[in-house]
Specification:
mainly alpha
Length: 151
């Protein structure tokens, strides 16, 4: 009775991941103090691309699109900025082979900054105002870094 099979463990993981991906962005739109986790999911997308793991890629893209839809942000901007990071900056971070935590932390910081830069460029080009800079974005960056270190 105490023995949990690997199939049950995998089913529990996918159930939890699916629930998190579909309902957490809705909670963020209600409770604005919850972190966005764009850097963590962007890093998950990059790791999925690097290791050729389709479930990681799918989970990260569904989360990012769901977040953007719930927060009325530009659609696919986080996915595009993550892919730009993967193509432009991530190859230079592969030099941190021995320090995996350093690579993860730098990736999250650069992913968040790249997304913020793309969002500001979008706002400038289309003369809109998607976000307002305040302490919540700094809080989101710190929590993103902590989540990646824990995972």
């Amino acid at each position: 009775m105490d023995h949990v099979t690997k199939a049950q463990h995998g089913l529990f993981f996918w159930l939890f991941a699916g629930t998190f991906i579909f309902f957490y962005p809705m909670l963020i739109s209600i409770y604005v103090f919850l972190p966005l986790l764009i850097g963590a999911m962007g890093y998950m997308l990059v790791q999925g691309l690097e290791r050729a793991k389709a479930p990681f890629i799918l989970l990260a893209i569904v989360y990012m699109v769901n977040l953007e839809v719930n927060l009325s942000l530009p659609i696919f901007l986080s996915v595009i900025s993550s892919l730009l990071f993967y193509l432009l900056l991530y190859p230079s971070l592969k030099h941190f082979r021995r320090c995996i935590i350093c690579r993860a932390l730098l990736s999250v910081v650069f992913l968040d900054l790249m997304y913020l830069g793309c969002l500001f460029a979008y706002d400038f080009i289309f003369q809109t105002q998607s976000i307002i800079l305040d302490e919540i974005l700094l809080y989101t960056l710190i929590v993103d870094m902590l989540v990646v270190v824990i995972l």
